[in-house]
Specification:
The chain is an alpha/beta fold. It has two domains: about 140 residues, Rossmann fold, CATH 3.40.50; about 180 residues, Glycogen Phosphorylase B (Rossmann fold), CATH 3.40.50. It contains eleven helices and twelve strands. A six-stranded parallel sheet has the order 3-2-1-4-5-6, with helices on both faces. Strands 9-8-7-10-11-12 form a six-stranded parallel sheet, sandwiched between helices. Helix 1 runs parallel beside helix 9 and helix 6 runs parallel beside helix 11. The longest helix has 17 residues. It is globular and about 60 Å long.
Length: about 350
């Protein structure tokens, strides 16, 4: 019987994407293992087509007793030998414990009394190059390569429909670079000031001749339209026009993505698009890094990283991060990848 391993990373979009190197690493280290991933419905599309995952168990976004009971029944039938909780919250710990796996591996920094579920703890560290390495460290006993940390999202041709239609309708991609600005985040404190995005968009438009696209959810459409109205470069608002996989395809079609520490920014990194991450209150390891990625931040912010529910009166980590600093990083990356 092959080794059966359960990965527990239920949410959110960016975190699920950042966790994908774990599946690739485990399959590389243990080619014959059977991998099951438990994920909540909102993030499940980001795992679709992932060749390293044998099975996904999908829970409702807010799983209730019935949903959890069904998941428990499925897990018990699979007789897992190991369960790895990459999330470290009570909800993921409950799933990890319910797996019945003899080995249940969690993070030392797990919260919300999650430690009750674990038989092994991965020591806390904060010095990783990219946060995906923290998840890989939990699997070191399986022989994984912690340096193979770039996330991945697998797309197919059906996902590109809206992006292809937009590029055709707006005559994009033939001459001028296409730059996507990810201006919104599920956590408002991670958002760069709107007026800075205005200045950046106009700088990239005038310097690179770039066409600017502002994506987002349906809820964010009014904010995107208001932001676009302040820009001289006449950006394209594409908020509320795509599913999450279609949004990933749009990012894949772009020449450059600039955004904060948000799901779409990390998805852009995962699909291989050059990306500049504007990082404020998050740990420095949250920013993508590599040949096609740059993370821009202000040094000497003593209160970084913000803790959950921590209140901030100054937001220096974002306000001191000037449009010129981000524009310089974007133009340097554009030169590196041959956009100018």
């Amino acid at each position: 019987m092959s080794e059966r391993i359960l990965i527990v990373r239920m949410s959110s979009l960016g975190d699920v994407v950042q966790s994908t190197p774990v599946a690739r690493a485990l399959k590389s280290a243990r080619p014959n293992c059977h991998l099951t991933w438990v994920v909540q419905r909102a993030a499940a599309p980001l795992l679709a087509g992932n060749s390293h995952i044998d099975e996904t168990l999908v829970l409702d976004t807010r799983p209730g007793p019935r949903n959890m009971l069904e998941a428990w029944s499925h897990m018990k039938a699979r007789e897992f030998s190991a369960a790895i909780d990459l999330q470290g919250l009570l909800k993921s710990a409950i799933v990890t414990y319910a797996s019945g796996a003899e080995r249940r591996i969690g993070k030392e920094e797990a919260r919300e009394i999650a430690h009750f579920a674990y038989t092994e703890l991965s020591p806390e560290r904060w010095d990783q190059t990219y946060i995906s390495q923290r998840y890989l460290e939990q699997c070191e006993s399986f022989g994984v390569d912690t340096n193979d940390y770039v996330p991945e999202v697998f797309l197919d041709s059906d996902d590109f429909g809206p992006a292809d239609e937009l590029f055709a309708a707006e005559n994009l991609g033939d001459q001028a670079p296409v730059v996507v600005l990810v201006a919104f985040s599920a956590e408002p404190r991670r958002e760069w000031p709107a007026e800075y995005f205005v200045q950046l968009a106009d700088t990239l438009s005038s310097t690179l001749g770039a066409r600017i696209i502002i994506p987002g959810t349906e809820r964010e459409r009014l904010r995107a339209e208001a932001l676009a109205e302040r820009m001289n470069c006449q950006p394209i608002v594409f908020a509320g026009e795509t599913s999450i996989r279609e949004a990933a395809a749009l990012l894949a079609r772009a020449d450059l993505v600039v955004g904060g520490d948000s799901g779409l920014t990390h998805i852009a990194f995962a699909v291989g698009t050059p990306v500049v991450c504007v990082l404020g209150p998050s740990p420095l390891r949250n920013g993508p890094k590599g040949e096609r990625a740059r993370t821009v931040y202000v040094d000497d912010i003593p209160c970084r990283p913000c803790r959950p529910r921590q209140r901030c009166e100054h937001h220096d980590c974002m306000r001191m991060l000037t449009p010129q600093m981000v524009a310089d990083a974007a133009l340097e990356l554009a030169t590196t990848v041959g956009l100018r």
